[in-house]
Amino acid sequence: MLPCAHRIGDPKLATQKELSDFLAQVERRAFKQAVFAVHDDAAALDIVQDAMLKLAEKYSARPASEFPMLFQRILQNAIRDHFRRQKVRGTYSTQLSNLGSADDDESDPLDTLDVEDLGNVPESPAARFEQAEVMAFIEDAVKALPDRQREAFLLRYWEELDVSETAKVMGCSEGSVKTHCSRATHALAKALRAKGITL
Amino acid sequence: MNEKDFAAKLKPWLERSAAQVGELEATRLKAARLRALDAYREPVSILGLATVNGGALENARYTLLQRGLMILPLLALVAALALQSIDTDVDLGEIDAQLLSQELPPDAYIDQEFRSWLGKSSR
User: Fold this and answer.
1) Which of A6, A160, A192, B80 is spaced 20 to 30 A from A144 at the CA atom?
2) Distance from CA of B82 to the nearest CA of A (A)
3) Measured between CA atoms, how close is B20 to chain A, in angstroms?
4) Considering the domain boundaries, does residue B95 fall inside one?
5) Higher pLDDT, B95 or A159
């Protein structure tokens, strides 16, 4: 039986309102994920729109609890399709494989990075400016991660899928997910430390 | 600090980044969501056995039992038509037999022309 078909007796199928609520909840995160991947706002919007449409058209007969994983799978496939189309056109997006400084110190950046609780938006303009700069740097660092590392990191720690779900979405083993996540985390920590950012 | 702690500290920054999406992008995202909801079709139940979303019927695959149950009405129709056809043949045969054996006037058998007609028609 196809994923779009469900037997009677399965968990309660999603209503239109549940679908609407789910899409409203994830649309901005999905957009940012697509922007991190394709580095182009317009293309990212198209990708998210296609993903939403596909979810509504093909998977309405599914329980709402399955939406997060289904949507992420669709979204990641849409991002991959975007890159395939780009490749056909002969344009390649540049991906940075290394972050931060080129020093080869063996210390674990996660051991030394001091991360403070982020709390609320700062009141003073100077603090707000500083926060905006940090956020821009974090966005750039996430964008600069290799595709698979970024995908694994965002699915695991932003979308909060478990290792098994992330592996299914990415079409790889759970071991690969853990490896990608670890490398992504270390790369981000290293980049922040190299920039002298203490969050 | 381990991987999970670091990710947990970074997550609010990502959330804040998503929350600060521009107005134009937010409007387009909302429009995309509404378009997707327009494409939503109420799930359709097939013979009470499975539920699929509208538009997926042509792609649905079913187990052997489900397929058998789905073609059951068609088989019943074919069987009914076949039975009806057999009944019709029997009825016509009975009428012919009555015509030839019972309702034929005895004089017909004496009639030479009838005999010759009967011979021709039987050939």
Assistant:
1) A160
2) 34
3) 9
4) yes
5) A159
According to the CATH classification, is domain A109-194 in 3.40.50.300? no
Question: Could you tell me the pTM of the whole model?
Answer: 0.64
Q: What range defines the domain where residue B96 resides?
A: 62-123
Of A5, A110, A134, the CB nearest to B3: A110
Q: Confidence band (pLDDT; 50, 70, 90) for A8?
A: very low
**Number of domains composing chain B:** 1
Cβ separation of A157 and B4 shorter than 8 Å?
Answer: yes
DSSP string, chain B: --HHHHHHHHHHHHHHHHHT--HHHHHHHHHHHHHHHHT----EEETTTEEE-TT-GGG----HHHHHHHHHHHHHHHHHHHHHHHHHHHHHHHHHHHHHHTSS-HHHHH-HHHHHHHHHHH-
Residue B119 domain flag: yes
Task: Give residue-wise pLDDT tens across range A71-130.
Answer: 999 999 999 999 998 888 765 555 544 454 444 445 565 655 554 444 455 667 777 788
- CATH 1.10.10.10 in chain A, residues? 109-194
